[in-house]
Amino acid sequence: MYSFEYQRATDPKAAAAILTADSDAKFLAGGQSLLPTMRLRLAQLSQLVDVTRIPALKSITVNAQTVTIGAAVCHADVADHAELRRVSPGLADLAAHIGDRQVRALGTIGGSLANNDPAACYPAAAMALDATIVTERRRIACQDFFVGMYETALAPDELIVAVEFPVPERAAYEKFRNPASHFALVGVFVAKFASGVRVAVTGAAASVFRVPELENALSANFTPEAARGVSVSNANLNTDMHASADYRAHLIPVLAARAVTKANS
């Protein structure tokens, strides 16, 4: 690992100002992706700006319409928050199955979304629940936030402050996980709103995406049978050492059906 300076930020704007002045600096939250990259000498940074002690980034607020989660809240705290589990159990359950206990104790929701790993779980929740990503300077709709593999709409010096999730009528997440990393080979988040159903998939392509065919079928009939009756194209899906595009295409409606069963239980 190369040498670097460490700073602890006191507020979001001060943290962003450091990166504005120094293009080789990076924000540090849980560090679950950034620190291994540095340890392998795949990144050489001048400064790490720790944002985990900023009060505005550490809170969870829940009401009947919206769940607001600070960007530095770790996965374990999302999973264990009693009010969040009551109004949005699908989101809490997703957080409870990210990585292992150590990852959940350190990894943060803001870090996960900013990194936008193609197999990460939170992007599926953000897209299915129609989340809004709030930074220190603007609000970004989820459909505009995820750009591509490890790419988002964030500027290099822009800091996520919080994520706002509308509360669905019903929702659930199912993933077929890699047994070693616990990342999703395919993960499917299904959310039912009064306006219809949203379905988002992670792990299957370069970035999270929605499946209109499943959304239409489940909006008409929110049952596992309706999900299993949908055929998903393998076009633009990943083939790698873990699974083929065909297999991932097969898994998407299967996992959607399981998510519907869970949401209806």
UniProtKB/TrEMBL annotation:
InterPro entries (UniProt xref): CO_DH_flav_C, CO_DH_flav_C_dom_sf, Diverse_Substr_Oxidored, FAD-bd_PCMH, FAD-bd_PCMH-like_sf, FAD-bd_PCMH_sub1, FAD-bd_PCMH_sub2, Mopterin_DH_FAD-bd
Organism of this sequence: Paraburkholderia metrosideri
Any one GO molecular-function label of the UniProt entry: carbon-monoxide oxygenase activity
Originating gene: cutM_2
Keyword Flavoprotein part of the UniProt annotation: yes
Protein name: Carbon monoxide dehydrogenase medium chain
Domain called FAD-binding PCMH-type: residue spans: 1-170
Organism domain of life: Bacteria
Keywords: FAD, Flavoprotein, Oxidoreductase
Classification of source organism: Bacteria, Pseudomonadati, Pseudomonadota, Betaproteobacteria, Burkholderiales
Enzyme class, UniProt record, top EC level: oxidoreductase
Keyword Flavoprotein: yes
Enzyme Commission number(s): 1.2.5.3
